[in-house]
Design brief:
Layout: H1 13-17, E1 25-30, E2 33-38, H2 43-49, E3 56-57, E4 64-65, E5 78-81, E6 84-88, E7 99-101, H3 105-119
Parallel strand pairs: 1-7
Antiparallel strand pairs: 1-2, 3-4, 5-6, 5-7
The structure holds FE2/S2 (inorganic) cluster.
Residues 44, 67-70, 72-77, 88, 90 line the site of FE2/S2 (inorganic) cluster.
Length: 124
């Protein structure tokens, strides 16, 4: 499966002030695809700098979810990180070897929430 990406559509202010080739980079795996991204940035920022344009999909009509607030409030950036579902990409710093799953991440988060609800004895 390929990730939905185009050219870079996000850049940090640092990229304008420094030589991009001099930045330290790390390798991450996104839905099975190896990407080289800048180190020392959030997962959300690194993915947008790599040109990723769809983080997950809306359950009703399948529209794209993409980061919106970049400060942990909106949950539009939810992805799976190193097999942990429902992580906010904007609040997690990227590291070498990180495995990121984007397809269905929001559905898995909602499913995990339902399971936790049932384990707690709550039934809707
Ligand atoms: S972009 Fe809003 S919580 Fe991550």
């Amino acid at each position: 499966m390929s990730i939905d990406s185009g050219g870079a559509w996000f850049t940090s202010l640092e990229n304008h002030a420094t030589d991009r080739s001099a930045q330290e980079r790390v390798s991450i795996v996104v839905d099975g695809q190896l990407l080289s991204v800048p180190a020392e940035v959030s997962v959300a920022a690194s993915l947008m700098m790599a040109g990723v344009r769809r983080f997950s999909e809306r359950p009703v009509h399948g529209g794209a979810r993409v980061p919106y607030c970049m400060m942990g409030v909106c949950f539009e950036c939810v992805v799976d990180i190193d097999d942990l579902p429902g992580c906010r990409a904007c609040m997690t710093k990227v590291h070498s070897g990180m495995r990121i799953g984007m397809r269905g991440a929001m559905s898995r988060l909602l499913s995990a929430d339902d399971d936790a609800h049932e384990e707690a004895g709550h039934h809707d």
